[in-house]
Automatic annotation (TrEMBL):
UniProt EC number: 1.5.1.1, 1.5.1.25
Database matches in Pfam families: OCD_Mu_crystall
Reaction(s) the record says it catalyses: L-pipecolate + NAD(+) = Delta(1)-piperideine-2-carboxylate + NADH + H(+); (R)-lanthionine ketimine + NADPH + 2 H(+) = (3R,5R)-1,4-thiomorpholine-3,5-dicarboxylate + NADP(+); L-pipecolate + NADP(+) = Delta(1)-piperideine-2-carboxylate + NADPH + H(+); L-proline + NADP(+) = 1-pyrroline-2-carboxylate + NADPH + H(+)
Top-rank lineage group of the source organism: Eukaryota
Subunit record text: Homodimer. Binds the thyroid hormone triiodothyronine (T3); T3 binding inhibits enzymatic activity.
Protein name per Swiss-Prot or TrEMBL: Ketimine reductase mu-crystallin
The family this protein is said to belong to: Belongs to the ornithine cyclodeaminase/mu-crystallin family.
Listed InterPro entries: NAD(P)-bd_dom_sf, ODC_Mu_crystall, ODC_N
Example GO molecular function: pyrroline-2-carboxylate reductase activity
A GO CC annotation given for this chain: cytoplasm
Organism: Rotaria sordida
Amino acid sequence: MYYDEFAVKENLSLPSLLEVLSDVLYRYSKHDPSLQQPLRSILSINGQQNALLNLPCIDIHLGYMCVKTITSFPESSPAIDGAVSLFNSNNGRLLLIADAKEITARRTATASFLATQLLAFKKWKNEQKENAILTILGCSVQGRAHLDVFTQLFKWNKIYLWSRNMTHAINLQSDYSSKLSNIEILKDLNDNRLQQSDVICTCTASEEALIGLKQVKKGVHINAVGSFRETMRELADDLMLSSDTQIIVDSKESAMKEAGEIIQSKAKIMAELGELIHNDKFSNDICNEKITIFKSVGIAVEDLAAAIVLYESLKK
Ligand SMILES: NC(=O)C1=CN([C@@H]2O[C@H](COP(=O)(O)OP(=O)(O)OC[C@H]3O[C@@H](n4cnc5c(N)ncnc54)[C@H](O)[C@@H]3O)[C@@H](O)[C@H]2O)C=CC1
Ligand SMILES: O=C([O-])C1=[NH+]CCC1
Protein backbone atom coordinates (compact mmCIF):
# COMPACT_ATOMS: atom_id res chain seq x y z
CA MET A 1 0.00 0.00 0.00
CA TYR A 2 2.88 2.45 0.80
CA TYR A 3 5.53 2.94 -1.88
CA ASP A 4 8.74 4.66 -0.89
CA GLU A 5 10.95 6.84 -3.08
CA PHE A 6 12.86 3.84 -4.49
CA ALA A 7 9.63 2.05 -5.48
CA VAL A 8 8.37 5.26 -7.11
CA LYS A 9 11.58 5.72 -9.07
CA GLU A 10 11.62 2.10 -10.21
CA ASN A 11 7.97 1.90 -11.26
CA LEU A 12 7.15 5.32 -12.64
CA SER A 13 7.71 4.97 -16.38
CA LEU A 14 8.59 8.34 -17.89
CA PRO A 15 7.04 7.74 -21.35
CA SER A 16 3.76 6.68 -19.66
CA LEU A 17 3.91 9.67 -17.32
CA LEU A 18 4.44 11.99 -20.29
CA GLU A 19 1.35 10.54 -21.97
CA VAL A 20 -0.97 10.72 -18.93
CA LEU A 21 0.37 14.17 -18.01
CA SER A 22 -0.49 15.45 -21.52
CA ASP A 23 -3.99 14.03 -21.22
CA VAL A 24 -4.80 15.55 -17.82
CA LEU A 25 -3.20 18.92 -18.62
CA TYR A 26 -5.15 19.05 -21.88
CA ARG A 27 -8.44 18.28 -20.13
CA TYR A 28 -7.61 20.66 -17.25
CA SER A 29 -7.13 23.55 -19.67
CA LYS A 30 -10.30 22.62 -21.58
CA HIS A 31 -12.19 22.89 -18.28
CA ASP A 32 -13.38 19.29 -18.68
CA PRO A 33 -16.13 18.97 -16.04
CA SER A 34 -15.02 15.41 -15.20
CA LEU A 35 -11.77 16.86 -13.83
CA GLN A 36 -12.02 18.94 -10.66
CA GLN A 37 -9.05 20.75 -9.18
CA PRO A 38 -9.47 23.59 -6.69
CA LEU A 39 -6.62 26.02 -5.99
CA ARG A 40 -4.27 24.32 -3.54
CA SER A 41 -3.98 25.51 0.04
CA ILE A 42 -0.62 26.76 1.30
CA LEU A 43 -0.61 27.26 5.08
CA SER A 44 2.48 29.12 6.29
CA ILE A 45 3.95 28.45 9.69
CA ASN A 46 4.46 31.53 11.88
CA GLY A 47 4.57 33.78 8.82
CA GLN A 48 7.78 32.03 7.75
CA GLN A 49 8.61 30.25 4.52
CA ASN A 50 7.86 26.88 6.08
CA ALA A 51 4.49 25.65 4.90
CA LEU A 52 1.99 22.83 4.66
CA LEU A 53 0.52 22.36 1.16
CA ASN A 54 -2.55 20.36 0.21
CA LEU A 55 -3.24 19.50 -3.46
CA PRO A 56 -6.51 17.60 -4.12
CA CYS A 57 -8.20 16.66 -7.40
CA ILE A 58 -10.83 14.29 -8.80
CA ASP A 59 -10.87 12.72 -12.26
CA ILE A 60 -14.22 11.01 -12.79
CA HIS A 61 -13.34 10.19 -16.39
CA LEU A 62 -10.28 8.10 -15.44
CA GLY A 63 -11.96 6.92 -12.21
CA TYR A 64 -9.43 8.25 -9.71
CA MET A 65 -9.11 10.87 -6.96
CA CYS A 66 -5.81 12.07 -5.56
CA VAL A 67 -4.51 14.24 -2.76
CA LYS A 68 -0.92 15.22 -2.14
CA THR A 69 0.00 16.61 1.26
CA ILE A 70 3.50 17.99 1.57
CA THR A 71 5.61 20.19 3.76
CA SER A 72 7.96 22.72 2.21
CA PHE A 73 10.76 23.63 4.64
CA PRO A 74 13.44 25.35 2.51
CA GLU A 75 16.10 25.12 5.25
CA SER A 76 15.61 21.35 5.69
CA SER A 77 17.01 18.69 3.43
CA PRO A 78 15.07 17.50 1.55
CA ALA A 79 12.96 20.66 1.50
CA ILE A 80 9.81 18.78 0.46
CA ASP A 81 8.35 15.80 2.30
CA GLY A 82 4.98 14.10 2.33
CA ALA A 83 2.70 11.60 0.66
CA VAL A 84 0.41 11.19 -2.33
CA SER A 85 -2.80 9.18 -1.80
CA LEU A 86 -4.73 7.74 -4.73
CA PHE A 87 -8.39 6.66 -4.42
CA ASN A 88 -10.96 4.99 -6.66
CA SER A 89 -13.56 7.66 -7.57
CA ASN A 90 -16.32 5.05 -8.12
CA ASN A 91 -16.21 3.41 -4.70
CA GLY A 92 -13.99 5.70 -2.61
CA ARG A 93 -11.42 2.95 -1.85
CA LEU A 94 -7.85 3.99 -1.05
CA LEU A 95 -5.59 2.39 -3.67
CA LEU A 96 -2.07 3.59 -2.89
CA ILE A 97 0.03 5.92 -0.77
CA ALA A 98 3.39 6.92 -2.20
CA ASP A 99 6.38 9.07 -1.35
CA ALA A 100 5.69 12.63 -2.49
CA LYS A 101 9.34 13.73 -2.82
CA GLU A 102 10.01 11.44 -5.76
CA ILE A 103 6.59 11.94 -7.35
CA THR A 104 6.95 15.72 -7.10
CA ALA A 105 10.47 15.67 -8.50
CA ARG A 106 9.61 13.42 -11.46
CA ARG A 107 6.24 14.89 -12.42
CA THR A 108 7.64 18.44 -12.29
CA ALA A 109 10.62 17.55 -14.49
CA THR A 110 8.38 15.62 -16.88
CA ALA A 111 6.01 18.62 -17.16
CA SER A 112 9.06 20.77 -18.01
CA PHE A 113 10.07 18.20 -20.64
CA LEU A 114 6.58 18.23 -22.13
CA ALA A 115 6.79 22.03 -22.38
CA THR A 116 10.20 21.68 -24.02
CA GLN A 117 8.77 19.27 -26.60
CA LEU A 118 5.86 21.58 -27.37
CA LEU A 119 7.68 24.90 -27.27
CA ALA A 120 11.26 24.16 -28.30
CA PHE A 121 11.51 20.93 -30.30
CA LYS A 122 8.64 21.96 -32.56
CA LYS A 123 10.34 25.17 -33.61
CA TRP A 124 13.80 23.64 -34.12
CA LYS A 125 15.24 22.51 -37.42
CA ASN A 126 17.04 19.12 -37.46
CA GLU A 127 20.48 20.65 -37.04
CA GLN A 128 19.51 22.47 -33.85
CA LYS A 129 17.91 19.29 -32.51
CA GLU A 130 21.11 17.33 -33.05
CA ASN A 131 23.30 19.97 -31.39
CA ALA A 132 20.98 21.11 -28.62
CA ILE A 133 22.46 22.45 -25.40
CA LEU A 134 20.68 22.09 -22.05
CA THR A 135 21.53 24.16 -18.98
CA ILE A 136 20.23 23.46 -15.48
CA LEU A 137 20.47 26.14 -12.78
CA GLY A 138 20.19 24.73 -9.25
CA CYS A 139 21.46 21.22 -8.54
CA SER A 140 19.35 20.06 -5.61
CA VAL A 141 16.30 17.74 -5.84
CA GLN A 142 14.61 19.46 -8.79
CA GLY A 143 17.89 20.08 -10.64
CA ARG A 144 18.80 16.40 -10.30
CA ALA A 145 15.34 15.26 -11.42
CA HIS A 146 15.48 17.57 -14.45
CA LEU A 147 18.89 16.17 -15.44
CA ASP A 148 17.62 12.62 -15.04
CA VAL A 149 14.34 13.07 -16.92
CA PHE A 150 15.72 15.32 -19.68
CA THR A 151 18.61 12.95 -20.44
CA GLN A 152 16.42 9.83 -20.36
CA LEU A 153 14.01 11.34 -22.86
CA PHE A 154 16.37 13.20 -25.21
CA LYS A 155 19.98 13.17 -26.38
CA TRP A 156 21.65 16.54 -25.65
CA ASN A 157 24.84 17.57 -27.33
CA LYS A 158 26.07 19.40 -24.22
CA ILE A 159 24.78 19.96 -20.72
CA TYR A 160 25.81 22.82 -18.44
CA LEU A 161 25.17 22.84 -14.70
CA TRP A 162 25.27 25.77 -12.34
CA SER A 163 24.56 25.90 -8.64
CA ARG A 164 24.95 28.69 -6.06
CA ASN A 165 27.04 26.17 -4.17
CA MET A 166 29.40 24.91 -6.88
CA THR A 167 30.09 21.66 -4.98
CA HIS A 168 26.47 20.60 -5.65
CA ALA A 169 27.00 21.01 -9.39
CA ILE A 170 30.32 19.14 -9.26
CA ASN A 171 28.72 16.31 -7.24
CA LEU A 172 25.86 16.02 -9.71
CA GLN A 173 28.30 15.93 -12.65
CA SER A 174 30.31 13.26 -10.90
CA ASP A 175 27.22 11.13 -10.10
CA TYR A 176 26.43 11.04 -13.82
CA SER A 177 30.02 10.69 -15.09
CA SER A 178 29.64 7.00 -15.98
CA LYS A 179 26.53 7.74 -18.08
CA LEU A 180 27.18 11.23 -19.44
CA SER A 181 30.55 12.60 -20.49
CA ASN A 182 29.16 15.85 -21.93
CA ILE A 183 28.41 17.73 -18.68
CA GLU A 184 30.30 20.95 -17.91
CA ILE A 185 30.08 23.28 -14.92
CA LEU A 186 29.32 27.00 -15.20
CA LYS A 187 31.23 28.96 -12.54
CA ASP A 188 28.89 31.94 -12.75
CA LEU A 189 25.84 33.20 -14.58
CA ASN A 190 27.82 35.62 -16.73
CA ASP A 191 29.57 32.70 -18.41
CA ASN A 192 28.76 33.05 -22.11
CA ARG A 193 28.02 29.32 -22.37
CA LEU A 194 24.68 30.24 -20.76
CA GLN A 195 23.98 32.36 -23.83
CA GLN A 196 24.58 29.38 -26.10
CA SER A 197 21.96 27.26 -24.35
CA ASP A 198 18.88 26.19 -26.28
CA VAL A 199 16.96 25.12 -23.17
CA ILE A 200 17.45 26.42 -19.62
CA CYS A 201 15.75 24.89 -16.55
CA THR A 202 15.80 27.09 -13.46
CA CYS A 203 15.39 24.91 -10.36
CA THR A 204 16.20 27.13 -7.39
CA ALA A 205 14.41 28.61 -4.39
CA SER A 206 15.76 32.08 -5.23
CA GLU A 207 14.03 35.29 -4.20
CA GLU A 208 16.08 37.35 -6.64
CA ALA A 209 16.23 37.16 -10.40
CA LEU A 210 19.10 34.95 -11.55
CA ILE A 211 18.90 35.57 -15.29
CA GLY A 212 17.78 38.43 -17.50
CA LEU A 213 17.44 39.15 -21.20
CA LYS A 214 21.17 39.79 -21.76
CA GLN A 215 22.20 36.36 -20.49
CA VAL A 216 20.10 34.29 -22.90
CA LYS A 217 19.97 33.85 -26.66
CA LYS A 218 17.13 34.63 -29.03
CA GLY A 219 14.72 31.74 -29.27
CA VAL A 220 15.80 30.10 -26.01
CA HIS A 221 13.22 28.00 -24.19
CA ILE A 222 13.18 28.36 -20.38
CA ASN A 223 11.46 26.08 -17.88
CA ALA A 224 11.18 28.19 -14.72
CA VAL A 225 10.39 25.80 -11.91
CA GLY A 226 11.49 27.34 -8.63
CA SER A 227 9.10 30.09 -7.58
CA PHE A 228 5.72 29.39 -5.99
CA ARG A 229 5.29 32.45 -3.80
CA GLU A 230 4.89 36.15 -4.53
CA THR A 231 8.34 36.84 -3.04
CA MET A 232 10.20 34.20 -5.08
CA ARG A 233 11.58 34.63 -8.59
CA GLU A 234 14.32 33.37 -10.89
CA LEU A 235 13.73 35.49 -14.00
CA ALA A 236 14.22 39.26 -14.33
CA ASP A 237 11.53 41.69 -15.47
CA ASP A 238 13.28 42.48 -18.77
CA LEU A 239 13.01 38.81 -19.70
CA MET A 240 9.41 38.50 -18.55
CA LEU A 241 8.27 41.71 -20.24
CA SER A 242 10.22 41.61 -23.51
CA SER A 243 8.07 41.75 -26.64
CA ASP A 244 10.11 38.73 -27.79
CA THR A 245 8.89 36.60 -24.87
CA GLN A 246 5.91 34.25 -24.81
CA ILE A 247 4.84 33.03 -21.37
CA ILE A 248 3.10 29.70 -20.86
CA VAL A 249 2.01 28.39 -17.46
CA ASP A 250 0.69 25.13 -16.00
CA SER A 251 -2.39 26.91 -14.58
CA LYS A 252 -3.34 30.56 -15.09
CA GLU A 253 -5.29 30.59 -11.82
CA SER A 254 -2.34 29.20 -9.84
CA ALA A 255 0.33 31.24 -11.63
CA MET A 256 -1.46 34.52 -10.95
CA LYS A 257 -1.66 33.63 -7.25
CA GLU A 258 1.75 31.97 -6.76
CA ALA A 259 4.31 32.69 -9.49
CA GLY A 260 6.58 35.48 -8.19
CA GLU A 261 7.86 36.44 -11.66
CA ILE A 262 4.35 36.87 -13.02
CA ILE A 263 2.95 38.69 -9.98
CA GLN A 264 5.94 41.04 -9.66
CA SER A 265 6.42 41.82 -13.35
CA LYS A 266 2.68 41.78 -14.23
CA ALA A 267 3.73 39.99 -17.43
CA LYS A 268 0.96 38.74 -19.69
CA ILE A 269 0.35 35.01 -19.80
CA MET A 270 -0.06 33.73 -23.35
CA ALA A 271 -1.57 30.32 -22.63
CA GLU A 272 -1.66 27.27 -20.37
CA LEU A 273 0.51 24.31 -21.41
CA GLY A 274 -2.65 22.21 -21.81
CA GLU A 275 -3.93 24.65 -24.46
CA LEU A 276 -0.95 23.81 -26.69
CA ILE A 277 -1.67 20.09 -26.70
CA HIS A 278 -3.47 18.85 -29.87
CA ASN A 279 -3.31 22.44 -31.14
CA ASP A 280 -1.76 22.59 -34.60
CA LYS A 281 -2.51 26.27 -34.98
CA PHE A 282 -0.34 27.11 -32.00
CA SER A 283 2.50 24.82 -33.18
CA ASN A 284 2.51 26.53 -36.57
CA ASP A 285 2.60 29.94 -34.91
CA ILE A 286 5.60 29.27 -32.67
CA CYS A 287 8.31 31.53 -33.92
CA ASN A 288 11.96 30.49 -33.86
CA GLU A 289 13.04 33.96 -32.77
CA LYS A 290 10.77 34.16 -29.74
CA ILE A 291 11.87 33.33 -26.21
CA THR A 292 9.44 30.86 -24.66
CA ILE A 293 9.06 30.56 -20.89
CA PHE A 294 7.17 27.73 -19.23
CA LYS A 295 6.52 28.97 -15.69
CA SER A 296 5.29 26.12 -13.52
CA VAL A 297 4.22 26.28 -9.91
CA GLY A 298 2.99 22.68 -9.76
CA ILE A 299 -0.64 21.53 -9.79
CA ALA A 300 -2.56 18.56 -8.39
CA VAL A 301 -3.46 16.96 -11.74
CA GLU A 302 0.27 16.40 -12.31
CA ASP A 303 0.48 14.37 -9.10
CA LEU A 304 -2.68 12.53 -10.13
CA ALA A 305 -1.05 11.57 -13.45
CA ALA A 306 2.02 10.23 -11.66
CA ALA A 307 -0.02 8.31 -9.07
CA ILE A 308 -2.15 6.70 -11.81
CA VAL A 309 0.91 5.61 -13.81
CA LEU A 310 2.49 4.21 -10.65
CA TYR A 311 -0.67 2.38 -9.56
CA GLU A 312 -1.34 0.88 -12.98
CA SER A 313 2.26 -0.28 -13.32
CA LEU A 314 2.25 -1.91 -9.85
CA LYS A 315 -1.12 -3.60 -10.52
CA LYS A 316 0.28 -5.53 -13.53
N1 LIG B 1 7.12 24.10 -10.16
C1 LIG B 1 6.90 23.02 -9.46
O1 LIG B 1 6.02 22.21 -9.78
C2 LIG B 1 7.74 22.73 -8.26
C3 LIG B 1 8.59 23.68 -7.76
N2 LIG B 1 9.40 23.41 -6.69
C4 LIG B 1 10.29 24.46 -6.24
O2 LIG B 1 11.52 24.33 -6.94
C5 LIG B 1 12.60 24.81 -6.14
C6 LIG B 1 13.67 23.74 -6.06
O3 LIG B 1 13.13 22.60 -5.43
P1 LIG B 1 14.07 21.57 -4.62
O4 LIG B 1 15.23 21.22 -5.44
O5 LIG B 1 13.18 20.52 -4.10
O6 LIG B 1 14.52 22.52 -3.41
P2 LIG B 1 15.82 22.48 -2.50
O7 LIG B 1 15.53 23.28 -1.28
O8 LIG B 1 16.29 21.09 -2.35
O9 LIG B 1 16.90 23.25 -3.37
C7 LIG B 1 16.85 24.62 -3.54
C8 LIG B 1 17.98 25.02 -4.47
O10 LIG B 1 17.88 26.43 -4.69
C9 LIG B 1 19.16 27.01 -4.50
N3 LIG B 1 18.95 28.40 -4.09
C10 LIG B 1 18.25 28.86 -3.04
N4 LIG B 1 18.31 30.20 -2.99
C11 LIG B 1 19.06 30.60 -4.05
C12 LIG B 1 19.49 31.84 -4.55
N5 LIG B 1 19.15 32.99 -3.94
N6 LIG B 1 20.23 31.87 -5.66
C13 LIG B 1 20.57 30.72 -6.28
N7 LIG B 1 20.22 29.50 -5.86
C14 LIG B 1 19.47 29.45 -4.75
C15 LIG B 1 19.84 26.17 -3.46
O11 LIG B 1 21.24 26.32 -3.51
C16 LIG B 1 19.37 24.77 -3.90
O12 LIG B 1 20.17 24.30 -4.97
C17 LIG B 1 11.99 25.17 -4.79
O13 LIG B 1 11.74 26.54 -4.73
C18 LIG B 1 10.69 24.38 -4.78
O14 LIG B 1 9.72 24.95 -3.94
C19 LIG B 1 9.41 22.18 -6.10
C20 LIG B 1 8.54 21.22 -6.53
C21 LIG B 1 7.62 21.41 -7.62
O1 LIG C 1 3.62 21.48 -6.82
C1 LIG C 1 4.31 21.20 -5.84
O2 LIG C 1 4.30 20.11 -5.28
C2 LIG C 1 5.17 22.26 -5.29
N1 LIG C 1 5.31 23.40 -5.89
C3 LIG C 1 6.19 24.27 -5.17
C4 LIG C 1 6.57 23.53 -3.94
C5 LIG C 1 5.95 22.19 -4.09
